Amino acid sequence: MLNLKNNFIFATVKTGYSDATGIVTNRHLEFYKARSKYVGAIIPEPLYLDKGLRELPTQMGIDSDDKIEGLKRLTDTIHQFGTGVIAHLNHPGRMANPKIPGNYFVSSTDEPCENGGAKPKQMDADDMQQVINLFTNAAKRAEKAGFDIIELQLGHGYLAAQFISPKVNKRTDEYGGSFENRIKFPLQILDAVKAATHLPIIVRMSGDEMIPDGIKIDEMIRLAKILKDKSVDAIHVSAGTACSTPPWFFQHMFVPKGKTWELAHKIKEAVDIPIIFVGQINEFKDVDKVFNEHKADYVAVGRPLLADPNFVGKYLGEVKGNLRPCLACSEGCLGGVRSGNGLGCSVNPTVGHENEVFEKSPVSKTIAVVGGGLAGMQAAVSLHERGHRVTLFEKDKLGGQFLLAPLPPHKDSLIKIVDYLKKELQDRNIPIVKREAVADNFANFDEVVVATGSKPFIPPIDGLKKYYWAEVLENHNLPENKKVLVIGGGLIGTEVAVKLLSKGNKVYIVEMLGEIARGMEMLEQKLTLKSLQHENVNIFLNTKVQKVDGDRVHIEGQDYKQTLDDIDVIVLAAGMKSYNPFENMKINKPVHIIGDALKPGKAQDAIHGVYELAKKI
Question: Would you place residue 65 in the very low, low, confident or very high pLDDT band (cuts 50, 70, 90)?
Fold first, then answer.
């Protein structure tokens, strides 16, 4: 066992909080400090072994001795809570970022990742020795920097897995072909690291790469038995490959929860070695299941500790309060890193800004919040947290338009943020007035927050009858086996199209711009576009609907005109426009416009915008 204070581990998540030098920053220290108290150990983000092997320009490094001082500050910060620190060492091989100047690429093969990337050099003996040296030198630095454990990445499509995977490794020498040959080089890395340090070692592996001819569980059970014989201290079991199946790698909401637990369970049944379970363990019932049913030795939690730094503390009963849920959406975490802004979270605006103070306001005000959608509910909660006396006006259902967000396929997890905010309103005893607010209602309030959302934009198309996307998502008269035209190919239009496909409809998407699925998180976008590569889908880009004449729709592109015949249903998804019924009214007190009422956007925009406003009132 790993000799930790409890059996919860913060799984490694890329932060992007460093700079081009790869040093530990104060932002790192504050981020990990906020998540250190209740877990048994933290695995900080993957540490690059060489500056030419970075996945992010702003990744944390362990490639030279000048990194040790900063890494020691990091381990000291975490150790003050009696929490262990695990160094995650990984060589990306052909998965090094091709956009970073100076990066180089080696692999078991000379074939690039099928989803893109640079062409790697097929490694020879000298290359292998260089890699072994990188791992051993990094391991020695980790020990000097105060890390307690080393985790070696042998999965997820990175270099070691590029040797293990029969899909990738087509070598004909002693490092290719049979299972014994394909694991030879990864085991040489392991042996060298064990000889170089006195630290316990965890091996992370993909129980299944989720691709044909890739790594499968039977061979991983065989590998686990070998790892036990080599006195590895624990095995951390995940799934997928960053190259070919990134939704599995990131455990996106589009992949089924629990598959990684089943893989880990199979290894645990076959091998007497501590097993770390991971993958969408984002609700307390998930923790119970992996401990009680799967008999997990350790549970690794990653992104749920972004959404709520006290996830483990609340599970253990040491922290009171509702659990702010992880939606497994990858919008703020993966999206934030890729945008260059650093790790964030859609539902938690404090991620990456843990040193900013959100405390009681020196003056308690009475505040009316108009609109009970996501922005309005979050505003009421945040303003109440600041010490203000809040009343929420909502004439219809709490959740507003965001109640539609969980309705497209695979997105049901999104409802959790609505449920959370409703529980917060209830527990804080925030009054909810169930009628439409008018200006006269504000006489006894000090300030007003307008969160009235947005309404569909209706383009001026001759003959167009109103049939909105919301009705499709809500399954009101959902067409079946019909010819359906979707006007608008943005986020909403493409989600509607996917749902229509599920009912056997033939779908036409007409989009004014040159691309569809704009604004979607990258993983979701790729999966959605893949779903739309279907014989029942016709997509027209750079095209407008000019006229609707009964069941005939006239469209026009840059250099063509066409008529679509026998259209049964038209779904309008041409975007949203802000709705503010008080826009032209004189209200003699401060008025704040938030969420879609200010500018149509995503849930993250609304929640983060509200947080910034609440800090100022």
Answer: very high
